[in-house]
Structure formats: structure tokens, C-alpha cells
Specification:
With 438 residues, this protein is mainly α. The protein is built from 18 helices and no strands.
Length: 438
């Protein structure tokens, strides 16, 4: 579980958070850990608890068409749109950008990503256990390198911690909470869960209760390990600003710190390990997307999907890490509330007799708020004025919804709808989970 969620790309976000939160690091990193490690565990547990065959099966509790829409968008988000292109850009910015001249960065990224995704394509066409085995070696390798680096940071900090930037000056906890969305691990957990569950079953565990217990135990260990690493990297970022200033994103923070403590050798070693780790992640994401969409469109071969997704990922990667992170935010502001609500409904389902009406009503209310949040964030990302139709809705939400300006306006309405529709369902006992197209 630790290896599944510990992607090299995730290293950049706590580093960026550390740089920007400064003296408000503690509340910011607590918020980040809730969404960056807590929600991924919740997602895996939700699939195990539900007994669903996969994410689409679980989301069909709302509606079969919605299930395809939600699952497809989630795969595209953690695949070719954002997370997969990020693997190449992180590897480039952490490992190689510092060796390339200022005026040649774009061509450098182009050549690097071309080679990176050509290898991804070739291996994805005939995926083998080699990738899994390499990943099992690389994950401990990165942890060892990071442990040495973070030990140096603790023993000999690069500089003092500076004042927070504006976003973290007030409401640093909520800002950190929303920053945790960028890891995309909570979304990925809904897909990765079946890998975990199948691994547990292969060890002879068969009952639903025992699978859930084993998942919770292993997940707790994974969350603790991830949290320690995230806190350490955030502290590294916070102590780096006095020496290096604020970077555009978290990519150069690790490479700069590695160079500061270990010179060129440390930077090259970090570059090699992180590049290989990012490569195994990219292969996993491309093959995962190809396999899923091939189930939706069986007439299109797996190989054609691999070529399509690898090519699309390569194109998007060349927009650069900063742009990928920036344009992911509107999609994540839309998707994350829907994912969180699905997890909550899964655990609360027995209380309202698994009534479909509760799933539908809660999802609709959450959708109506999160889709507006998505467009609002898109307007801010594009640095344009809000769309005309959007302004009155934003004004109403701002005045009527608690925590709306903090990006959590969906939370209280969703809980209220669950409470009301759930109470009605308990009284009238409508159609239950057993009638969900099974």
C-alpha cells in the first residue's frame, strides 16, 4: 500500500507547501495529511467495506450512467490528463533541469519526455512483472535517499523558516487541506483498492470482515510512513526559502537541497532513482487506463488505447509541470467532493438501508456545488472574469453556504441531505442495494 501511494510526483507538493506556509507549517501540514494520506486510506477501506468489484460497480449505486462518467473522468485525471504527464515533468525538473541552460528548458523537456514516454509505450504494450519488481526495489531506494537527506535537514537546516505567503497567512489548515487534493491519491485509491484486496485474498484471507481488518492494519502502517515523509519534506521546503527563495513549484526544491548537501553526485543519484520511479508509475497509469477503457469499448484493442494514451500524455507533459498542476485544480475541485461523498455514503449505507435515493440526492447536491467550484477555479486559473451565468450563483453560494470561500461549501449541504434523506429511507425502507442492477 505504501508503494502504491508513494509516487515520486507526490514529493513536490509537501515541498511546495513547506516553502509557502513558512511559520504556519504545522496547521498547513495537518490539513495536507488529512487529504494526502487519510482520504486515500478511506478510499481503499470504502471499496473493501462495500464488497464492490471495482469503482464503477460502487459508483453504480448512484446510477449506472453516472458510474461510467465518474469512473472515466477519474481514470483520465489520474491518467493522461494530469498525473501521468506529471511523472515525466517531475523527473525532468527534479533530476535534469538544473543541468540544462536557461534558454533550452523547453527543448530539454521535449527530448526528455519523448524518450520517457517512448519507453513507457514500449513496455506498456507488453507489460510484465519486471515493472512491478523494479518498483519494489525503487520505493525503498527513494525512502533511503530521502531519509539521509531529511536527516541532514534536521541536523543542519539550510536556513531559518520565513513568514508564510498570503495564501497561508490565514486559513493555513484549509489551504493545506485543499493542497492535498493535488496528490490525487484519494482518487487513485478508489482504483488501487482492488490491487490491495486481491493481494490480501492471495494470502488466504477470504471473509469480508478479515479483508477489511487486514486492509485497515496495512493501511495504517502506510499512512504513518507517508505522513513522516511528507512532514519531513515540508520541513525541508520551509527551511529552504532563506537560501533559494520561493520556487514556482516544488520540483526544484528537492534537487536544490540535494545539491546543497551532497553536491553533483547527490543530484545525479536522486535524478536516476526518481526518473525510474516515475517511469514505473507512468507505465502503471497508461496500462490501467488502457485496460479500463478497453472494457468500455471492447472493439478497440488494448494496444490502440496504449498508443493513444501514451501519445496524449506526452503532448500534455510538454506544457510543463507548473501548468499541469495549475490546470488540474479546477478538475480536482469538481471531482474530490464527489469522491469524498461516495466514500462517506459507502460507510453510512447500512444506516439508511442502502437506499439508492440517498446516494442520488446527496450526489446531486454535491455535484451542483462542486461543478460551480470547478468553473470558479477555472476562471481564476485562466485569470479571466467569472462567466456571466456564474456570477449570481457564486453570490448566492457565498452568502448561503458555510465554508464556501474556503472551498468546502459542499460539505455541510451534503451532510444535511444524507441526514434528511437517510432518515426518510429508514422510515419508508425504499429500494435497497440488493436491487442495484445485480
Amino acid at each position: 500500500m505504501f508503494a502504491l501511494f508513494f509516487g515520486a510526483g507526490n514529493l513536490i507538493f509537501p515541498a511546495e507547501l513547506g516553502q509557502e506556509s513558512g511559520t504556519n507549517l504545522l496547521p498547513a501540514i495537518i490539513g495536507f495529511l488529512i487529504t494526502g494520506t487519510g482520504l486515500p486510506l478511506l478510499g481503499v477501506l470504502a471499496i473493501a467495506y462495500s464488497g464492490s468489484e471495482n469503482l464503477q460497480d460502487l459508483a453504480s449505486r448512484v446510477n449506472p450512467v453516472y458510474a461510467i462518467f465518474f469512473t472515466s473522468l477519474l481514470y483520465l485525471t489520474i491518467g493522461p490528463f494530469f498525473a501521468a504527464p506529471r511523472t515525466a515533468t517531475v523527473a525532468y525538473e527534479v533530476g535534469f533541469q538544473s543541468f540544462i541552460g536557461e534558454g533550452n528548458q523547453q527543448i530539454g523537456l521535449f527530448i526528455f519526455s519523448l524518450i520517457f514516454f517512448a519507453i513507457t509505450l514500449l513496455i506498456s504494450l507488453k507489460p510484465a512483472k519486471l515493472v512491478d519488481n523494479v518498483g519494489k526495489i525503487l520505493a525503498p531506494g527513494i525512502v533511503i535517499l530521502l531519509a539521509i537527506l531529511l536527516a541532514m535537514v534536521v541536523v543542519k537546516p539550510m536556513g531559518s523558516i520565513e513568514a508564510p505567503l498570503e495564501a497561508y497567512a490565514s486559513g493555513s489548515f484549509v489551504t493545506g487541506f485543499l493542497e492535498g487534493y493535488n496528490t490525487m491519491d484519494a482518487l487513485a485509491s478508489l482504483v488501487f483498492a482492488m490491487i490491495v484486496i486481491q493481494a490480501i485474498r492471495s494470502m488466504g484471507v477470504t471473509s469480508k470482515q478479515e479483508i477489511l481488518r487486514s486492509t485497515a492494519k496495512s493501511g495504517t502502517v502506510a499512512v504513518i510512513l507517508l505522513s513522516v515523509i511528507y512532514v519531513g519534506i515540508a520541513y525541508l521546503g520551509a527551511t529552504s526559502t532563506q537560501v533559494f527563495g520561493i520556487f514556482e513549484n516544488g520540483g526544484p526544491v528537492l534537487s536544490s537541497a540535494s545539491s546543497y548537501y551532497f553536491g553533483a553526485f547527490g543530484t545525479v543519484l536522486l535524478a536516476i532513482v526518481i526518473t525510474l520511479a516515475c517511469l514505473t508509475t507512468a507505465i502503471g497509469l497508461v496500462t490501467g487506463c488502457a485496460e479500463y477503457f478497453q472494457t468500455l469499448l471492447p472493439k478497440v484493442s488494448y494496444e490502440k488505447f496504449v498508443v493513444f494514451f501514451a501519445t496524449l500524455t506526452f503532448v500534455i507533459a510538454n506544457f510543463g509541470l507548473t501548468n499541469i498542476i495549475k490546470y488540474a485544480e479546477p478538475v480536482l475541485m469538481f471531482l474530490y467532493p464527489l469522491a469524498i461523498v461516495l466514500m462517506l455514503l459507502t460507510f453510512l449505507s447500512p444506516l439508511f438501508h442502502h437506499a439508492r435515493s440517498v446516494y442520488i440526492s446527496t450526489t446531486i447536491v454535491t455535484f451542483m456545488i462542486s461543478i460551480v467550484d470547478g468553473f470558479k477555479t477555472l476562471s481564476q486559473t485562466l485569470e479571466i472574469d467569472y462567466f456571466g451565468w456564474l456570477k449570481p450563483i457564486l453570490a448566492y453560494y457565498d452568502s448561503a453556504l458555510p465554508l464556501y470561500n474556503e472551498g468546502l461549501g459542499w460539505l455541510l449541504p451534503a451532510l444535511i441531505v444524507i441526514a434528511i434523506s437517510g432518515t426518510i429511507a429508514r422510515v419508508y425502507k425504499p429500494v435497497t442495494a440488493h436491487a442495484w442492477g445485480k
